[in-house]
Amino acid sequence: MWKNPASFALSALTTFALLLPMERLTWAAGPTPSEPSVSQPSPYAEIDDDYVELIQMFADALDQVDRNYVEKLDRRKLIEAAIRGVITELDPHSTYIPQEELARFRTNIDQQFGGIGIQIDSRNGQLIIASPLVGGPAYDAGLGAGDRILEINGQSTKGMTIDDAIARLKGDEGETVSLVIYHPAEFKTETVELEREMIQLQTVLGDQRLENNDWDYIYDHDQKIAYVRITIFSRNTAEEFAAVLQQLKKDEIRGLIVDLRSNPGGLLSAAIEISDRFINEGKIVSVEGRNTPKREWSAVADTTLVDVPVAVLVDHFSASASEIVSACLQDHERAVVIGQRTWGKGSVQNIINLEEGKSAMKLTTASYHRPSGKNIHRLPDAKDTDEWGVSPSPDMEVEMTPKQLANFQNYRRRRDMGTLIPHPPAPEPPLADVDPVLAKGLEYLESKLSQPASP
User: Fold this and answer.
1) Number of C-alpha atoms within 13 angstroms, CB side, residue 241?
2) Which stretches does the entry tag as region Disordered (predicted)?
3) Is-contact 297 306, C-beta < 8 A?
């Protein structure tokens, strides 16, 4: 049996206090006149009467379950369930990693596995496809951003964490995975069988392909308006993007559209490098948290590659690194942002060891802030009126109906699947009917280019 709950709680707090460095204990009690003040915040929770009472209540509840539940319970499972219960009150990106899964988690960070080419997220307890990577198995099968994953290999995703879902989706190359998918744009559910592949895809794309299968990055050759689409911010994305901009600079483009729709994010370093290509000076992004020192990244002089009017396209599934880029360019008045308000994923997760490294937590400890200082991350209880994500510039919001979204995804997929030059005999539909967001971007750039040049 466990100790008396009150004794258990006080004992736990005593042990906790003994682990504190002496300077932390001195600071908590208040420095004497001869002692220097400690400017950094304590990394430990404040121990007060309320905290003691709450721990006592928690210990009492565990003790009652352990002694009086109808069946004998595994105490480790009970404690781990309590930890998971705490973490489920936080956000979908914080999670507990038990002993039996920790080794696999650490191995998965560095090793490559086969997958189906999707980024997933969670909203309102549902697993959602944030982005299918162009050319991947999921994309070729018709899965789109916003589709909901109901089952993975016959296992319901209700209550499933993002990390657990990713572990089930990954596997050996060539193996298949079965998904039950709900398409909200078409109000239909289907089962799809996808074969896992090693996903190493180009991440900087154009609108359509040339006859040699290379991407054509100039959308309007008469007006010299370029179109560059970034699908994800991976290790090579910044380098790919810089090479494309160098070529477009040689082509003497007059306007540029950067499409970040359904881009789930990726590496912070890639977002910073790409943002730096557009601005000469000033803050790009900052990171801060309750116990995380504030850190800022600023533009480096002489790295700007283009100095033309820019339109950035975003939607509800633009997240993380794509929000950093769009927010940076918007705050510096370097581009207009067109489309819909973004997802609001601007958080930083740290791996925190428990039990001297036998188990761990992946915990959200900080959040990204745009150059203006405004918050990017959408907290679980955030309202639409709160400050989060990236909203379209004034008069640049473009809402798409479910039918328009379905038409756009089909149109975009046809243009991505292969060489479309020469064009098929059937005429292309008006752009405003299949992609009103891109049409708005072109309209904006054409209006800018028609204005007299500034002296």
Assistant:
1) 32
2) 416-435
3) no
Task: Spot the catalytic one: 275, 320, 322, 391.
Answer: 320
Residue 178 bears catalytic tag: no
| Catalytic residue (one of 220, 259, 276, 331) | 331
Domains in the chain (CATH in brackets) are: 5-31+38-73 (no CATH), 112-195 (2.30.42.10), 204-450 (3.90.226.10)
pLDDT in tens, 64-76: 999 999 999 999 9
Q: Which pLDDT score is estimated for 306? A: 84
- Rounded to two decimals, the pTM is 0.73
Q: Which one of the listed residues 283, 345, 362, 440 is annotated catalytic?
A: 345
345 is catalytic: yes
Please give the Cα distance from 311 to 105 (Å, whole number). 39
